[in-house]
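Bit of a strange request maybe. I'm writing a small parser for structure token strings and I need a real example to test against, not something I typed by hand. Could someone generate the tokens for this chain?
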Amino acid sequence: MDDHLFGQFGPDTLIGGNGNDILTGGQGADNFHLSGGADLATDFNIEEGDQLKKYKSRDIALNIDQNSICLTYDTGSITLMFNEQASRNDLEKYILSLGLQH
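Reply from user aminoacidic:
Good idea to test on real output. This should exercise your parser:
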């Protein structure tokens, strides 16, 4: 099932499940869990402390373009959209800090 999940003010945990989900954390340090399906995180913000969770798959492919970073793994994918607060370089550094390479 495809869902659109919205966080509130403060930290939230967003778990999309098996569908192709849209995840919007809102303000605060949010946790975006990798799950089945093709998910889209609309406001991933490193400066607010947002984090990816459950990225233990050994086979993760990265695709970085002008507006987003897409991580594809064994059960699905998540696309992190850039916004005014998070630059491409910041997101790329964060992904590399997780031990993932492109």
